[in-house]
Design a protein that fits this description.
alpha+beta; Arc Repressor Mutant, subunit A; three-stranded antiparallel β-sheet; 8 strands; 35% helix; disordered N terminus
Length: 127
């Protein structure tokens, strides 16, 4: 998807949002216009979630969750990683990598993400 992942020492895949592609404002606005997509973002805020966890927590059909996760990832609103488990199945998991999102309509539309924990509260322009 839009971000790279790294394997950490504890055997879980982590997210590296520094490699995240630029967000297209139209894609962000389209994704945020959907109630179910906003609910999925909310449950992925505290910890990474699999598609099944999103479906269960949001009470949304799994087939719809997959479409919405793709849309949210394409809009750079979610980062994707892999959950390493003892069995052979390592499901994809999704996480938000920003604390706040702002839209600006000054000269066209621009999207700004803010990552307080990782960038000291500096806004990342033009995503």
């Amino acid at each position: 998807m839009n971000s790279s992942t790294t394997l950490t020492a504890n055997g879980t895949l982590g997210f590296d949002s520094r490699q995240q592609n630029t967000a297209e404002p139209a894609a962000v606005l389209s994704a945020l216009n959907d109630d179910d997509s906003r609910r999925i973002l909310a449950v992925c805020e505290d910890q990474p979630r699999t598609a099944q966890e999103c479906a269960d927590l949001c009470d949304i059909p799994l087939s719809s969750v997959y479409r919405k996760l793709e849309q949210l990832s394409d809009a750079s609103l979610l980062d994707e990683g892999r959950r390493i488990q003892p069995d052979a199945h390592h499901p994809r998991e999704f996480s938000t990598q920003f604390d706040s999102l702002s839209l600006s309509f000054d000269a066209g539309v621009s999207v700004n993400f803010r990552q307080v924990a990782t960038d000291g509260g500096e806004e990342t322009k033009g995503r």
